[in-house]
Design goal:
With 278 residues, the protein is mainly alpha-helical. It has twelve helices and six strands. It has two domains: 59-143, no CATH class; 165-277.
Length: 278
Amino acid sequence: MKALHVLKITFTAIVVLGCFSTSAVIGTQQLSLTDQEAEWIGNKIFRNECGGRNDYLVTWNKGEDFMSLGIGHFIWYTEGKRGPFDENFPALLRFIKQKGVSLPTWLEEQKEPHCPWGSREEFLEDQRSSKVYDLRKFLTDTKDLQLIFIVNRLQAALPKMLNTAPVKLRPHIEKQFYHMAATPYGMYALVDYVNFKGEGMLATERYNGQGWGLLQVLERMDGTENGVQAVREFVKAADKILTERVNNSPPERNEQLWLPGWKNRLNTYIQESVEYSA
């Protein structure tokens, strides 16, 4: 992943770009990532979602009614289908197109790009088609822009979360956010989790009224330190939030099958923070 090239493409209108670093004012403090740190985060997300393999950039997981695409496994529903989870692949396509990159021809021809396969079975039967090949190549060639899209999402998340949260909790949420954002590995956990489980603001992303996004994790945190200890506190809170999600989930979704993998992913945040700070 060519991070230097990535960072020379402005993240958002609020980003102040230097020669070797990217910074943005979010809330009351300034965040920054060097080229090397951005590349490190992008590679970690690609590994988490795709195992670092380009063939997993276009997938349809068993038991899900949507496709998962790109380094962030962005959700794409079939035409006319709307589920409880945030469909973010169409937004990614619009973002990449705005950056001057052409979409595969069959997507360019659609006014509103929609998933051309009606089911996982239909997609699996079409694995050797030109559409799958074009889509995988397109996503392989635009990994850098996908990383910018993911980071932009985090940049936009804090103001939205603060506006959504009860007034009395806002200082706590902001404080915990900046405990995490103080280090590159803390930023990695924030970027990865918001891509992995969302901001936590959608009413549809609730079971029994309980969300599982970044907002809920920050609310549950109770740390006072930056660095590795902040990441440990984040993982502890996220573990509880995701366990509650599974306990509250509809039995037919069999989400208990996913929980061990989710917890393993959370534990990589601690592992990476210890290794990065060593």
